[in-house]
């Protein structure tokens, strides 16, 4: 979070303890745009998840995913920005 934070935000409490908050600016060249999304971080969650997957470094959550449309089938998968129609 500290390396990617674009702007600070108020944290919150969760069942994993205090969550650090911040706005991230994510560049997605395939979409030709940049997304701003609020994010939360907590070392306790990181350690729990790394027990299952040692390569885990981060997770994209619902606010960013709501900006996109997903599709595909067994042969391919695609993600594109919502058209706004």
Structure description:
The protein is α+β, with helices and mostly antiparallel strands. The protein contains 2 helices and 6 strands, in the order E-E-E-E-H-H-E-E. The protein has helices at residues 43-52, 62-65, and strands at 5-8, 12-14, 17-28, 33-41, 68-72, 77-81. The strands form 2 sheets. Strands 1, 2, 3 and 4 form a 4-stranded antiparallel sheet that branches. The longest helix is centred in the middle third of the chain and has 10 residues, at 43-52. The chain is globular.
Q: In terms of topology, how is this protein built?
A:
Elements: E1 5-8, E2 12-14, E3 17-28, E4 33-41, H1 43-52, H2 62-65, E5 68-72, E6 77-81
Antiparallel strand pairs: 1-3, 2-3, 3-4, 5-6
How confident is the prediction overall: mean pLDDT? 76
Instruction: Kindly state the percentage of residues in helix.
Output: 10-25%
**Which structural class fits the helix and strand makeup?**
alpha+beta
Rough shape?
A: globular
Rg computed from alpha carbons, rounded to a whole number of angstroms: 15 Å
Tell me about the largest β-sheet.
Answer: 4 strands, antiparallel
Straight-line N-to-C gap: 33 Å
H and E order: EEEEHHEE
Low-confidence stretches: none
Specify the number of helices: 2
Number of strands: 6
User: What proportion strand?
Assistant: 35-45%
